[in-house]
Amino acid sequence: MNVIETKIKDLLIFEPKVFADDRGWFMESFNQQGFEQALTERGLEVPQFIQDNHSFSKKGVLRGLHYQLNPHAQGKLVRVVQGRAWDVAVDIRENSPTFGQWVGVELTGENYKQFWIPAGFAHGFIALEDNTQFLYKTTDYYSKECERSIVWNDPDFAIDWPVEDGLELKLTDKDRLAASLKQAVANKQIFN
Prior knowledge:
EC number: 5.1.3.13
CATH class: Mainly Beta
CATH superfamily: Jelly Rolls
Strand order of the largest sheet: 1-2-10-7-12-5
Pathway: Carbohydrate biosynthesis; dTDP-L-rhamnose biosynthesis
InterPro entries: RmlC-like, RmlC-like_jellyroll, RmlC_Cupin_sf
Largest sheet: 6 strands, antiparallel
Site (Participates in a stacking interaction with the thymidine ring of dTDP-4-oxo-6-deoxyglucose): 142
Oligomer: single chain
CATH topology: Jelly Rolls
Number of strands: 13
Strand content: 35-45%
CATH architecture: Sandwich
Distance between the termini: 33 Å
Helix content: 10-25%
Structural class: mainly beta
Shape: globular
Keywords: Isomerase
């Protein structure tokens, strides 16, 4: 497995080895020992995964920027198994030197990349094709009481979303009306 470091040390991209021939392909989509080794070598905390989630999105669906506060903060290992998405993680740890910075990566059913997003980051993605299927391994259970969102187009982040001309974004009211980073900070709805 190839591990790619990003501009934010806590966010990693994993590229599994894919063995392909004329019959198709095989890959080890997750290996706990390899995952732990990659994080430990970089001085990062090793999580325990306890829940898997699967979402299906049409082209133009934008989900995010979502996170859960303590005591149910979630780390996520995410990948696309069909279709194509632009995936983004934003550092919302107030005392972090990279607070407010983001990393984006294209995840597709063909590139097999996985994105590790630890607790303390807001997460979102836009589906760039119809029938985009997204898998998440999470480090805590879903908790409605701890769930929060920051608006996807907050100017403080200036995320470079790859939105094609004429593409109609599809968002829930929850995502469209989410708090700004400034509001989340003022309401103590981020990580210290």
